Amino acid sequence: MAEVIVLETAEDAGAFVAAHIAAAVRTDPEFTLGVATGSTPLPVYEALRAEAEAGTDFTRMAAFALDEYVGLPAGHPESYRSVVDREVTVPLGLDPGRVHVPDGSLDGIATAGERYEEALRAHGGVDLQLLGIGRTGHLGFNEPGSSFGSLTRVKTLTERTREDNARFFDSLDQVPVHCVTQGLGTILRARHLVLLAFGESKAEALAAAVEGPVSASMPGSAIQLHPRVTVVVDPGAASQLQFADYYRWAQDNKPEWQGI
Ligand code: PGA
């Protein structure tokens, strides 16, 4: 079962996860972080910048993004390449050659998935994968119906996801319809999954992912198949968890040596 940690605020959650990543990077400077985009991981990135200012050297860390929109012009500020550069690569001083984002350009689209899988394989995979969850239950952009064995490939976004992401664009029309996303099978290969969710709007999907039946109709439930998962949420996102009392009890009685 996933370890579920309920913290008071998204900022607390960001600081908690960033402290864990920073400690891992101090032990292994070539640590590989799987980065997510959207609003959810931003508190982690902010706290990682604070860890860098406090002296942790992230410059040899590698990063792999979960997904990318198809067809945005190079350099578009909402392309996930740009977001990762802005939030992670530049402020933490990563070597851009060690930061990987799926290729969403129309030219290379036929081979984008295969090339990304090869890059992940050649690199040796991801140590810790940050994940958000969409209201549809998606992980990365694996919308309901995605196979648990799926690899990086082109997917069509649901209308709900396009509407949810329209806030980053001037209008809904500008939100791409397609994306290249790591598959659920790709995500499950990461050595540690850290799923974050904040706010009541995520409560239903989060409860279904953590406690509901394992089903391709709820892509988030794929985390139940992974041996090492940490779910870090605020009280709003935790509000529909059936076993919330138990998670709090386990947290309160957690042995010092256990880590996450
Ligand atoms: P959000 O998106 O963090 O912007 O809510 C999460 C997701 O869609 O995976």
Write the layout of secondary structure elements.
Layout: E1 3-6, H1 10-27, E2 32-35, H2 42-53, E3 62-65, E4 67-69, H3 80-92, E5 99-100, H4 112-123, E6 128-131, E7 153-156, H5 159-165, E8 178-181, H6 184-187, E9 193-197, H7 203-211, E10 229-233, H8 235-238, H9 244-252
Parallel strand pairs: 1-10, 2-3, 2-6, 3-5, 6-9, 9-10
Antiparallel strand pairs: 4-8, 7-8
Helix pairs in contact: 1-2, 2-3
The chain binds 2-phosphoglycolic acid.
2-phosphoglycolic acid (PGA) binds next to loops.
Question: What would your notes on this structure say?
Answer:
There is one protein chain. This protein is α/β, with parallel strands linked by helices and 260 residues long. The protein has one domain (3-252): Rossmann fold (3-Layer(aba) Sandwich). It has nine helices and ten strands. The protein has helices at residues 10-27, 42-53, 80-92, 112-123, 159-165, 184-187, 203-211, 235-238, 244-252, and strands at residues 3-6, 32-35, 62-65, 67-69, 99-100, 128-131, 153-156, 178-181, 193-197, 229-233. The strands form two sheets. It has a seven-stranded parallel β-sheet, with helices on both faces. The longest helix has 18 residues, at 10-27. The radius of gyration is 17 Å and the shape is globular. The mean pLDDT is 97. The structure holds 2-phosphoglycolic acid. 2-phosphoglycolic acid (PGA) binds next to loops.
